[in-house]
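As agreed, record copied across for absentees:
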Amino acid sequence: MVIEARAVRTVSSLAPEGRLDGFELVAEGGLHALVGSPGDGVSLALAALAGRTRLRHGTVFVDGAAPDADPRAIVWLGRAAATMLPETMRVDAILALAARVRGGRTQGSTAALASLGIEALGSRRLRTLSRADVRAVALAVALAADAKVYLLDEPLLDLEPDVAARAVHLLRQRARDAACVVIVGTASEREARRLGAEVHLLRGGRIVSPPDRNGLAVYRAVASDARALVGSLAEEDAIVELESLGSAVRVAGTDATQVAAAIGRAAVRADVDLVSLERVENAAPGQVV
């Protein structure tokens, strides 16, 4: 299974999702991540791959055919998908309805919910759920379908930690066992690495070369409470690698300015004192002591 975009450009737009300008991608079976901010066009790229947005130029192919040649081959979970679910219906009824509309093979509603550990939500009406639970239901609907390509925009956003962990396992399993293509859109390279995905960086509407992993900006931070600092740093998207070294913490990212700013914010948030902060040049993981 291969999904391919060639020289894709979209109509110029001032919308938050930006525009695509020469977007090219070849994604073979497996797990992939489009990494970039909303303004870089991540959401728009996923919609283009799904055949859900008008192209000014370029083409998209799914195994050599247009995306709409077999509508059941592609599952697209946009950012607004959770808000489009019928809020007055029970969760199990929503999954049953989605299965009927889509046709083809799908998981049963109970199995789909259980795969994310949210089977207890089946008898609840959507409007009674929290934002995190609604997001989880939308993801369950997407993953219940038997498709060849899954295009998922920020699928882990707002999920409870245990649900997110199950979702990561499911995405990896789907990409590995079903020989299909799973493409996740995210603003966080750290999240993409957590997924174990092949990373494609999107900047200004086009794919750019990924940074050399040996060229990361690496800092060594010594704090009054290193453990608290590590916990706070885990919330920062600019951090790609994080390692606790006793009283010191090794922190790395692709942008030195953003990494330094993230360390400062994390220290304030954790209410810890930074004893020292130094940039370490040409350091590989495990070299900072």
